[in-house]
Design brief:
CATH superfamily of the largest domain: DNA ligase/mRNA capping enzyme
Number of helices: 6
Structural class: alpha+beta
Largest sheet: 7 strands, antiparallel
Shape: globular
Distance between the termini: 21 Å
Number of domains: 2
Length: 320
């Protein structure tokens, strides 16, 4: 892995002083790229190689005038309304031949927001504003590479306006923050809707006219144990139901992977906890269950053991 990425802390803060910057929250896949002369490496947040899936991004990075740098950003696909769509990005990831994917209209963009290294020098100790200025000066931005713009925060966070524009939310970052390889309270994510990654631990048989499977049983890790969080039965089309069922059948096991499996579920197939799903929902219940969950896609860039319940913070005092 090139570097361990800096991660944002979920937050419910709605007022920020002028020491913060606001960026658009993008619904895509985190990617870190390193160029060293003619060689370009592109990896996920967990270090998984991604270059073969995005040759147009690799080519754009290799064509830059500066020969050595490391950049951090988000790979996204836009829908017809100009909103980032993780579902469309999933289509790109499923079409393993990038030429076919582009021909099918699944174009991607790489939005860069940080520069951890430049010309062999570690820049992680510089303030964020300085790193962003260097990033703007280092990269020649043109499709498919884009600079992640920001505005200065000073008072109420304009989250409602961002949500009304169809954005995923906002990310608040301290202007003087250093780049650290962990989740940090100096970066805060302020989503428009609640959602997070959850581990698939089982599925139910379909009923009625449903095919493939009925619902996914999902959970998160806590103290080293997989805790049950509820069922997800919406967000699937027929093709996805069949494709995902095939993946799940290959992972079937006789016993539940959950430390606290649901006692009332029938016709359940338990699976090895290897698949990570992105799930949107309205809120957590008092019992630690998801309310009105909806499947958004599989995440191949996050390890199941790293999936924990995300708990919002009202201030920068929380550390993970």
């Amino acid at each position: 892995m090139l570097i361990r990425p800096m991660l944002a802390t979920p937050s419910e803060r709605r007022v920020l002083d002028d020491g913060w910057l606001l960026e658009r929250k993008l619904d895509g896949v985190r990617a870190i790229a390193e160029r060293d002369g003619p060689h370009v490496r592109l990896v996920s947040r967990t270090g998984k190689p991604m270059a073969d899936g995005y040759p147009e991004l690799v080519a754009a990075l290799a064509a830059q005038p500066v020969p050595r740098f490391t950049v951090d950003g988000e790979i996204v696909a836009f829908d017809e309304h100009g909103r980032t769509s993780f579902a469309r990005l999933q289509r790109r990831m499923q079409l393993r031949d990038p030429v076919r994917a582009v021909a099918a209209g699944v174009r991607v963009s790489y939005f860069l927001f940080d520069l951890p290294a430049l010309l062999g020098h570690d820049t992680t100790g510089l303030p964020l504003l300085n790193r962003k200025q260097l990033l703007r000066e280092t990269v020649e931005f043109a499709d498919p590479l884009y600079f992640t713009e920001h505005v200065a925060a000073d008072g109420p966070v304009p989250l409602a306006e961002a949500c009304a524009r169809g954005w995923e939310g906002l990310v608040a970052k301290r202007a003087d923050s250093r780049y650290v390889p962990r989740r940090s309270p100096d970066w805060l994510k302020l989503p428009c809707t609640v959602g997070q990654e959850l581990v698939i631990g089982g599925f139910t048989e379909p009923a009625g006219r449903r095919t493939g499977f009925g619902a996914l049983l999902v959970g998160h890790y806590e103290g080293g144990a997989l805790r049950y969080a509820g069922k997800v039965g919406t967000g699937f089309d027929t093709a996805l139901l069949h494709r995902l069922r095939a993946e799940l059948d290959a992972l079937v096991r006789p016993d539940p992977p959950f430390a606290d499996p649901p006692a009332t579920e029938r016709r359940v197939h338990w699976v090895e906890p290897r698949l990570v799903a992105r799930v949107a929902f309205t809120e957590w219940t008092r019992e630690g269950r998801l309310r009105a969950p909806r499947f958004e896609g599989l995440r191949t860039d996050k390890r199941p053991e790293d999936v924990v319940r995300e708990r919002p913070s009202d201030g920068p005092e929380q550390h993970d």
